Amino acid sequence: MRGNRVGAAVIAAVIAAGQPTPAVAAPPPGACRDTEPARPPVRELPWAQELLAPQRVWPHSTGAGVVVAVVDSGVDADHPQLRGGRVLRGQDFFLVGDLPGAFDCGSHGTAVASIIAAAPQEGIGFRGLAPGARVLPIRVTDRDGGRGAGIDPKVLAQGIRYAADQGADIINLSLSGTRDDKAVRDAVAYAQSKDVLIIAAVGNLQGEGSLPSYPAGYDGVIGVGAVDISGARLESSQIGPYVDIVAPGGGVLGATRVAGHTYWDGTSFAAPFVAATAALVRSAWPDLPADQVARRLLATAGPSRGGIGSLAYGAGTVNPYRAVTEGLVDSPPNVTAPVVIPRPDPGELRAAERWAVTRSRSHAWTLVVLIGTAVALAAALTVPRGRRRRWAPGAAHLPAARPVRDEPPEQLFLLDPPGR
User: Fold this and answer.
1) In the chain, what are the domain boundaries?
2) Residues 174, 176, 268, 304: which is the catalytic one?
3) pLDDT of 330-370, one tens digit each?
4) Catalytic hit among 72, 76, 169, 265
């Protein structure tokens, strides 16, 4: 009961922290060519939140003290579930000038950020996995960031370096491309040198054949594939050695700019579930370096259809509760002592043999006595009758003859009667 009270108190505090504040993240004049309108809220509990059950892990960690950089289309900090200081100012590298990253002309980056850190809201089933974490929004595009081909690699590299310099603990890259760009590769290595864990979507081009994927394919980057509500890989989710883990990505709910929610498909929306889990781990285990956080995420992943090490599913499905609470050790398991079979006592063996012989003899004598008794009883019954008849044979009484039936008797067949 005490654990339930603690969990309820944590959830209540998280909800209270997400109460509405005045809007501050309207796009600058002229920044958006085609602004996406607000959408209505979705109140039902989404399947991904039901599956991963973030409320189970909140008594242990909410991601507090961790900064997750969302390098994307920006993040609308005015969404009711992202207000209250959850979204930092950030930086816009797409437009010229000193603009913040805390606005979004579309909703791609807002959806990604909400999966990570959206606060619980009364009457709304959707919530982020790590509502105690803060989001650093870095704007590198003005539209859907799912295809890295539309993003200038130099701008992307600037955004990654900026995130590392601003103290981000985790960088979420819900974008992918097929080209290994040196500027991006060097920026990833720079961030990793500052102990930043990088999570990247593996891409949605599987229908076009086996393709490389960057930045998911870079060393040390956790590549995330997408599964649907049945646990099956999304048909478009790419397959390759860069798939390290999978997460919900088919029909998952995310916030939209200004207000409301909508459903999204793709590895772009699987990646933030893993980034949020990493935030929970880094908050609960602040001394773990990035590479050990990555190892923990993979070691605690749940079973998937592909089995461990699959090119489609990686280590399995991300499991926030296990990632935070499970105790892992680096030392090898203790060697089990060999089983020693004790030598039997010769005296006990001789005694057991004597008892076996005695039991065998007693059984034999018992059988002889029973047979003798049966013979004596039979003789006692038959001898007097034989003497009375002077040992002449008795007459046999034949049973009365029964009429012959023309038809055989009725029968019940389990199968069809013969001949039918």
Assistant:
1) 2-325
2) 268
3) 566 666 667 777 777 777 777 777 777 777 777 777 777 78
4) 72
Name the active-site residue from 61, 107, 108, 304: 108
**pTM, 2 dp:** 0.74
Q: Is 12 exposed, middle or buried (0-12, 13-18, 19+ CB in 10 A)?
A: exposed
- Structure tokens, 137: 């929004």
Tens digits of residue pLDDT in 236-257? 999 999 999 999 999 999 999 9
How much is the CA Rg of the chain, to the nearest whole Å?
38
The pLDDT score that the predictor gives to residue 214 is: 97
| CATH number of this structure's domain 2-325 | 3.40.50.200
Q: Is 397 a catalytic residue?
A: no
Mark whether 174 is an active-site residue.
no
Residue 108 bears catalytic tag: yes
Is residue 401 over pLDDT 90?
no
